[in-house]
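Example record

One chain of 148 residues, shown exactly as stored in the release files.
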Amino acid sequence: MSKNKRWYFIKLPEDFLESDPIEWLLTQDEGGNYFSMYILLCKIALNTEGRLVRLLGDVEVPYTPEDLSHKVRMSSSTVKVGVDTLLKAGLLSWIEPQILYITHFEMLVGSETDSARRMRKQRHNASSRASMRKLRAQQRKSLPPGQK
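Predicted structure tokens for this chain:
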């Protein structure tokens, strides 16, 4: 197994929760459940670039409502109505007759490897140390002559 694990994260624009589709979704009966389902569907679609499919070798097998029901831990009827509601809101779309796609997936999901995460942390720490040294130097300059 590779030691360089890949980490995924959901990137939400600042106004995401106030966007028309999300506000509309949350006003619907069971809207909170559908929003939770949407976030879980984003997670399910991480390794398939936003397509809600299962990979069996090189073959993509679309998830059925029953499959999704099991994955998101909601009833089949909730998933069926939820998918229809997410389609109506424009948060999901059909890219093939049986394959659902998370609309704007590439803007909502990012990833990085362990090594990239480590390097980012090292750069941040180095930057913080440099800022602290600069601040201390400025403080020493502002001290009266006998206290430096």
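Notes: Residues 6-109 form a domain with the Arc Repressor Mutant, subunit A fold (CATH 1.10.10.10).
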